[in-house]
Design goal:
The structure is a single chain. This protein has helices spanning 15-27, 38-47, 64-74, 89-97, 110-139, 150-162, 179-188, 207-215, 232-235, 251-263, 289-294, 300-306, 320-337, 347-355, 361-375, 388-391, 407-421, 426-433, 437-451; strands spanning 7-11, 31-35, 52-56, 79-85, 102-106, 169-172, 197-201, 240-244, 265-266, 275-276, 280-285, 309-312, 344-345, 380-381. By secondary structure, the chain is an alpha/beta fold. It has 4 domains: 7-136, Response regulator (Rossmann fold, 3-Layer(aba) Sandwich), CATH 3.40.50; 164-312, 3-Layer(aba) Sandwich (Rossmann fold); 316-391, Orthogonal Bundle (Helicase, Ruva Protein, domain 3), CATH 1.10.8.60; 407-451, Homeodomain-like (Arc Repressor Mutant, subunit A). A hairpin with an 8-residue loop joins β9 (265-266) and β10 (275-276). The protein starts with 6 loop residues before the first strand and ends with a helix. Bound molecules: adenosine-5'-triphosphate and magnesium ion. The site of adenosine-5'-triphosphate has 18 residues, from α7 and α15. Adenosine-5'-triphosphate (ATP) binds at residues 145-147, 173, 175-181, 244, 286, 326, 362-363, 366, 427.
Length: 452
Amino acid sequence: MEMVQSTVMVVDDDDANRVTLERILTRERYRVVHASSGREAMQHLRNDRVDVVLTDLKMPGMSGIDLLKAARMVDPDLEVLVMTAYGTVETAVEAMKEGAYDFVSKPLSRVELLSALRKALQKRELQLENRQLRERLAAVGEGEMIGRSEAMRTLLDEVEQVAPSDATVFLTGESGTGKSRLARLLHRMSRRRDARFVTLNCAAIPENLLESELFGYEKGAFTGAVARKAGRFDLAHGGSLFLDEVTEMTPGTQVRLLRVLQDGEYERVGGTETLRADVRVIAASNRDVELEVQQGRFREDLYYRLNVIPLSVPPLRERASDVTLLAQHFMVRFSNKNAKPLDGFTPEALDALARHRWPGNVRELENAIERAVVLVRGSRIGVPDLPRNLQEGTDRKRLSFDVGTPLKVVERRMIEETLRYCDGDKNLAASLMGITARTIYRREAEWGQDDA
Ligand SMILES: Nc1ncnc2c1ncn2[C@@H]1O[C@H](COP(=O)(O)OP(=O)(O)OP(=O)(O)O)[C@@H](O)[C@H]1O
Ligand SMILES: [Mg+2]
């Protein structure tokens, strides 16, 4: 995979030795630069691109070790191999302590030399890649969308176009594809960026409370309403309101939402004063919304009001080229977070990541990498550090029950195990089981009561 010819600098005060080495290396298609002293070597390093230095240890003037230290100051990613005469292993060890990559003993064995050189070059390449990645990632602001696939670029172009307007955006896409992140990005790129970005997950709120969460309530609106409470529309005034899982709304709440979107007006629950909403609404759903409309669960008129600008986030399996990029992004993030410097992935691990279908999309990938960074012992993430289901294709756990087991028991086990399988991702678990995420929230609340 070497795209450019690698450059090796040979440093030795022995002319015959240099000539021999140059012949061996040129035959292997390396570009060779040579120097007969440490000083000359440093001059080359300042002016030329060198990937690996192969240096003798004992030289008049600047020793190999001095050169090693000085060279590393010029290029910290430079790899240095030292040549050492038989019987002077101590000096070689000292050189390794100073950061030499490896040593080869004289008289040189061609095979040994070339193998050490190849390894040093591989390490160098990896380090350069990582450095570039770090630099690129440092330039990526928190909250930006990583991805250079065709699908992602198209999406980001659209985002750039629509972000500045106040038009309602409807984000669709499978669970974990990045809808919530994209909603935030839309807000950041809008002229409302200095005002608030308010989120409401409609599936996480009990149906009967959703309306008062959205619009707030007046004191005395219902039992327990001891004081006026602001709703999300109040909080988001001047900013953006992100309505996540917007399809999980009762018909009554849908009507009220439709009205705000149409007239920009609303009342708090139990209130008579009409309030004006200055809010940009971003909605999201991981359901097939057209189907929800067809089957009468979601109002068609509301759908059209929300769907002024439809944006659909493609599943991760349809943008395979983003997998590696995202994996590396998460690797850097979590290795910084855990103060655990890593060099990247083994080729086998990258392969396993690329083969997986990612039913939980970017969230699943993020979790997998976080876990791997915590588990890994070496400097690179390998296949054994990845979740089991990536290592061996799929290994879904099976459940079995006696005939006549109460459905409540079956249901609870199924939900709990599926949640475990999905790493706690309720949306994903719900979509696997063909129920709504709200059902899971509701069941969990019931179990909490049963258990208490
Ligand atoms: N392109 C991306 N670049 C970097 N991080 C991403 C990207 N897409 C998603 N993520 C991260 O992956 C995780 C899942 O994304 P997000 O929560 O936005 O998904 P979602 O589509 O809203 O899922 P759900 O439908 O379950 O709400 C988040 O931590 C998010 O920051
Ligand atoms: Mg989300």
